């Protein structure tokens, strides 16, 4: 008779990961979810020609040596000249494949090249200092920036200067966001006070708009119904016999994130194959919500199925929050949570 293997789930709240500055640099590569994507594997929606056009423009940008940009932003800002920068900016809603195309560009381009989220680059500057971060990134042939967001004036000035100096050094830049460069920071701080910096930042890019519906949910239902606390715990213990799973209360994990810098959220999840939360409750505090968004992004990067109890995931953020300045961040988070929860529901 074969003895059944049992194991206990681990708890993310027991981890306080540490990272050395060099780890931030070596970690600037596409996450597992996008480790094997390519321009060929991108499936544009035939009803949205801008998707195929963006793919073709990016492929041409990656293939050519100079990376000269066109004049779209000159018209956008009325400057009467072409942008001096060597960058492309993919603007579009969540779930239209911008990160897929960004990672495809990284894979196809000559190396060295860097790939990271906006917050990972600001964290890099914080860890290394501006001069050293600029020096290390200037060694790259291409810098890919995902989820470009300007949430405070300091980041506006910092990233404007960094992008200018990188493009002056001949580095190609590709960025993705769901906000046009001229509207970055809108609704979150007094953007008009920093209009010069925002426009200088925008001038580094040629914009390509990608239209379409969220590919994760085309024709698919809403998130699965939450389980009971006991059902979540039982499933976590059962799955822990096969691989490492993380079981935490929702209150516990959201409180714990205060103690861990967002640059370490990926390392917080190292080795975890599935995530289980009990007692999910609506979030009304902006700081708590933004930390949760950052964690969900890292979970999605790592394809971590999610199983929950408590309120349905589409009730996670208040109506006030999803109509405010961070609306697009929260909608992207809900889209990714739904995809992870569906995967968790299929594991059984």
Automatic annotation (TrEMBL):
This is Cell division protein ZapE. GO terms for molecular function: ATP binding; ATP hydrolysis activity. Pfam families: AFG1_ATPase (PF03969). It comes from Sediminivirga luteola. GO terms for biological process: cell division. Coiled coil: none annotated. SUPFAM superfamilies: P-loop containing nucleoside triphosphate hydrolases. The keyword Cell division applies. GO terms for cellular component: cytoplasm. NCBIfam families: ZapE (NF040713). Keywords: ATP-binding, Cell cycle, Cell division, Nucleotide-binding.
């Amino acid at each position: 008779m074969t003895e059944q293997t049992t194991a206990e789930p681990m708890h993310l709240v027991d981890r306080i990961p540490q990272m050395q500055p060099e780890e931030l640099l070596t970690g600037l590569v596409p996450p597992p979810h996008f480790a094997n994507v390519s321009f060929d594997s991108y499936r544009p929606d035939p009803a949205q020609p801008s998707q195929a056009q963006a793919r073709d423009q990016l492929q041409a940008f990656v293939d050519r040596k100079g990376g000269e940009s066109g004049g779209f932003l000159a018209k956008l800002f009325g400057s009467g000249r072409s942008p001096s920068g060597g960058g492309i900016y993919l603007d579009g809603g969540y779930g239209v494949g911008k990160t897929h195309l960004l990672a495809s560009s990284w894979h196809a381009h000559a190396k060295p090249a860097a790939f990271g989220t906006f917050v990972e680059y600001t964290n890099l500057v914080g860890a290394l200092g501006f001069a050293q971060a600029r020096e290390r990134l200037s060694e790259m042939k291409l810098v890919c920036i995902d989820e470009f967001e300007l949430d405070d004036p300091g980041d506006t000035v910092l990233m404007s200067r960094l992008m200018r100096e990188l493009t002056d050094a001949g580095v190609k830049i590709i960025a993705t966001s769901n906000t046009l460069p001229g509207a970055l920071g809108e609704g979150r701080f007094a953007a008009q006070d920093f209009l010069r910096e925002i426009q200088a930042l925008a001038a580094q890019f040629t914009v390509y708009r990608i239209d379409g519906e969220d590919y994760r949910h085309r024709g698919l239902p809403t998130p699965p119904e939450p389980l009971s606390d006991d059902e979540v715990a039982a499933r976590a213990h059962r799955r822990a016999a096969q691989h490492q799973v993380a079981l935490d209360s929702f209150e516990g994990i959201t409180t714990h994130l205060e103690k861990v810098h967002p640059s370490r959220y990926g390392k917080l999840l190292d080795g975890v194959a599935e995530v289980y939360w009990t007692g999910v409750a609506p979030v009304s505090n902006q700081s708590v919500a933004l930390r949760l968004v950052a964690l969900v992004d890292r979970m999605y990067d790592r394809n971590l199925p999610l199983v929950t109890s408590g309120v349905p995931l589409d009730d996670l953020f208040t109506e006030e929050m999803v109509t405010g300045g961070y609306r697009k961040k929260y909608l992207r988070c809900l889209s990714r949570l739904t995809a992870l929860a569906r995967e968790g529901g299929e594991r059984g």
